[in-house]
Amino acid sequence: MNNKELGDLGEKIAANFIRKKGFEIISSNFRCRRGEIDLIALKGNIIVFFEIKTRKKSSSNFDVKFSITQNKQSHIRDCAKYFLHSHKDYQDFQVRFDVVTVVNGMIEHIENAFW
Length: 115
Hints:
The chain is an alpha+beta fold. The protein is built from three helices and five strands, in the order H-E-E-E-H-H-E-E. The chain is globular.
């Protein structure tokens, strides 16, 4: 399995996981000129921008959680701003940035992973 296939599989696993947690996915792989947001979902009056990290093997999820650099966070925030600007229905929602890691078959959801 190549990295693209692994990433796609991880996103499917993460999407199923967050649906089971009561989220409604409204977009996947949203792209803008600054980058991409893996999943965008709603729960109540909160819109959540998800970064999904998938790895085959890791000594711990610690490595994966902290692999999202400040630069990557900045790109995700910029894409989120663009999404909210172009989807006016969601502008009054609370905003959150979460990370879901899929490592060795284990799933972890980190709420408010960055701002």
